[in-house]
Amino acid sequence: MASTGGHLAQLVRWSELLRVRRDSVFATFDSEQSRSLLDGRRVVLLDYVPPRGFRQTIAATARLMRRTRDEQFDVVLTTGAAVSLAAYALARLRRIPVVYIESVSRFDGPSATGRILERLPGVRRYSQHAAWAGRPGWRQGPSLLDDYAAVPVAVDPSARAGRSGRKVFVSLGTIRPYRFDALVDAVREQLRPEDEVTWQLGVTDRSDLPGRSSGEVGAGEFDELVGGSDVFVTHAGVGTLLRALELGVRPVVVPRRAERGEHVDDHQLQVAHELADRGLVLLREPGELSSTDLEPADVRIRRSGDRAS
Description:
Structural class: alpha/beta
Largest sheet: 6 strands, parallel
Strand order of the largest sheet: 10-9-8-11-12-13
Number of helices: 9
Strand content: 15-25%
Order of helices and strands: HEHEHEHEHEEEEHEEHEHEHEE
Helix content: 25-40%
CATH topology of the largest domain: Rossmann fold
Distance between the termini: 19 Å
CATH superfamily of the largest domain: Glycogen Phosphorylase B
CATH architecture of the largest domain: 3-Layer(aba) Sandwich
Number of strands: 14
CATH class of the largest domain: Alpha Beta
Number of domains: 2
Radius of gyration: 20 Å
């Protein structure tokens, strides 16, 4: 069980690395991402639970109980966010273990959900970062970021033959209700008239943008846009970043900031700095973004082989 976005992307990746059975049940929200990532799997769809949405968590718990009353589970695995509390309730009622893997974006301590689960019995809690894995009740596990490395490559001019402008894809993620106009404005200021740009805006609805805009795109189209563009510009959502790395693309990353009302906290800044230190992303603030940053990247991302469970 996990929220959509980065939490679900990590859950799917962990389910692969840990080799969970194919008939396992995934519980999450209905979205383009979940429909694509979980195609062919058994899924329970829940109503959206916003960050710290405890009233909605109760409703999600009740629905989950009804939909899985005849299922037999060995373990409940969750990666957050608030909906993890419904996963905990299910595990306790079924008297089975619950495993919580904190998001890779949490570098200096657990999230609000992780701190709540610290107070509850029967939870096996794992951190992906050694810096705080010694916190009471937490164990250190591997990090999903260890799978990736940046490799310099020569830019092939023939790949842009016949095109006068740059092909740019901008993705803001889909978290509600947080807009991200600062990134939109920063990119717009650096575009040239001949550039071809596609915007995935989430709730940041705008009618003043060149190119093609949509609130959300499916996973298949997302992959095509990331892989087929000269440059991919995005917020620092973990799910978005992991998918770009999976596709071998080093994105230009502008983190959402709490002080601008773009997210509930600044965990995106932490994950962006960590990936930038590893050479996996090009980190910028809105006022730092330049036209040069929108040129084709001279770095590709390579993923190592899957680890055994």
